[in-house]
Description:
Dihydrodipicolinate Reductase, domain 2, binds 1,4-dihydronicotinamide adenine dinucleotide, oxidoreductase, Gfo/Idh/MocA-like_OxRdtase_N, NAD, MI/DCI_dehydrogenase, Gfo-Idh-MocA_inositol_DH
Amino acid sequence: MGADHARRIHEVISGARVSAVVDVDAARAEAVAARVGGCPAHTDPAAAMAAADVDAVLIASPGAAHEAALLAALDRDLPVLCEKPLTPDTASALRVLQAEQKLGRRRIQVGFMRRYDTEYIELHRLLRTGRLGRPLLLHHRHRNAASPSGWTSDMLIRDSVAHEADITRWLLDQEITAVTVLRPTPSAHAPDGLQDPQFVILETADGAIADVEIFVNCGFGYQVQAEAVCERGTARVGDGHAMVTHTAGRWGGTIAQDYLERFHAAYDREVQAWVDATRRGETTGPTAWDGYVAAAVCEAGVRSLTEGGRVEVELAERPALYG
Ligand SMILES: NC(=O)C1=CN([C@@H]2O[C@H](COP(=O)(O)OP(=O)(O)OC[C@H]3O[C@@H](n4cnc5c(N)ncnc54)[C@H](O)[C@@H]3O)[C@@H](O)[C@H]2O)C=CC1
Ligand SMILES: O=C1[C@@H](O)[C@H](O)[C@@H](O)[C@H](O)[C@H]1O
């Protein structure tokens, strides 16, 4: 993801350039740096942030490494675009919130890129108009062709359903209050011991229900879909019907194979929005609070997955900085 964002800043985004690349794996850092014009490559994030020509930081290391990098960036008062998850758990997310509050202004945008996807934006707008009436249900499907090696059952929640935790709150403008995770018999194509698929039920403060099918070894491609069921109609996004062919007695289209293909335009808009806001001296988009709430929802989800039953989401009081 980091290599793709570096390419994006180098090739697509206006108003920014890649001035340093960091990876604990020196060879990877050097390879990416070479592809974006030969900037310095580092293995230590703090050392890279100390460079005079670093004005902003994009974090795309694994979630467990985000807290240290975020705190180092906030320490230098640098604007940050941090890939989801903000951090993998609420304790570390709260530490990040505290550090940002100390600065007294927002510095962190979290990489929930679906908020920049044109289809999700259209659905968000439609729901705001009230034309369909009150949303009652939200059906999400989230399918990956195959899980990366080493994936564990909790990662389906923390790494994948984190997106639905965020987009459900954003679409419905309601907090998620409880999570129940159901465990169907795993697919024969899932690695041994991986609970895949899972069926996640999210309850919201105003009584709507969102369900998420998360299936990370579906085999056939990458699909992210959402259907809002409202009092006066339904609206659905993510069918991917860009071009439909009719030939030899059949009709059909193609299925994206990964998130880079499906969401490439959303990532472009997300990073451009971050760069534009940074140049204006502002921070916009999903907040560190949104990242914290997603972590809290996922934490409840992982408890439901491991202990069974319905788990309520516990949230800290929302600090004034986050409105
Ligand atoms: N928004 C989206 O759709 C997606 C977001 N992501 C997010 O992007 C982040 C990275 O994910 P991937 O690229 O899939 O992981 P990856 O494992 O493919 O790459 C992570 C890289 O970070 C390096 N690294 C590990 N610890 C580090 C540290 N402390 N400091 C600097 N570099 C470190 C690794 O050597 C590796 O090169 C994660 O937060 C993930 O959740 C990933 C895929 C899609
Ligand atoms: O964020 C992402 C990955 O980390 C995650 O592994 C995938 O399931 C998601 O679809 C993708 O958007």
